[in-house]
Amino acid sequence: MTTEEIIRLAFELGSAVAESDEVDRLKALQMKLTQDSTAYDLLMRYQDAKNKLDNKFHDGLLVTKAEEDHLNILEQQLTANSVIAELVQAQESFDNLMQGVYFAMNQAIAGAGSCSSDCCDSCGGGCS
User: Fold this and answer.
1) How far apart are CA 90 and CA 64, in angstroms?
2) Superfamily name and number for 3-114
3) If exposure means fewest CB atoms within 10 Å of the residue's CB, which of 43, 58, 67, 104 is most exposed?
4) How do the domains of the chain map onto residue ranges?
5) Can you give the pLDDT of all 128 residues of the chain as single tens digits?
6) Who contacts 46 (Cβ-Cβ below 8 Å, separation ≥6)?
7) What is the pTM of this model?
8) What's phi and psi for 103, nearest 5 deg?
């Protein structure tokens, strides 16, 4: 199979993923988030606080308990917000789809019989 054929098939796969229920739901909920000022502002405040703490930590600066508590409160508010909770669930569904696609591609490349019986580190799958 030529490189061009592989790229064409990859494009078809990407198009199929783009038409999936998971992508449709994720896009709809992203739009819903942008239209819900309370949820959107909460998410922006959380991301800002998280980035500031991450930067302080990365720079070797002390992160205070008050800063950690503030971030924890914002995380609790995120969890309690129904729009954000739906969006997180939709993102997880999309991530699961993409992991399944990657796993299937890896199996096709490595061959279905390449998984060892003791654990699936060789193929990227999980042990059950």
Assistant:
1) 33
2) YheA/YmcA-like (1.20.1500.10)
3) 58
4) 3-114
5) 999 999 999 999 999 999 999 999 999 999 999 999 999 999 999 999 999 999 999 999 999 999 999 999 999 999 999 999 999 999 999 999 999 999 999 999 998 665 555 555 555 555 55
6) 71, 74, 75, 77, 78
7) 0.75
8) -60, -45
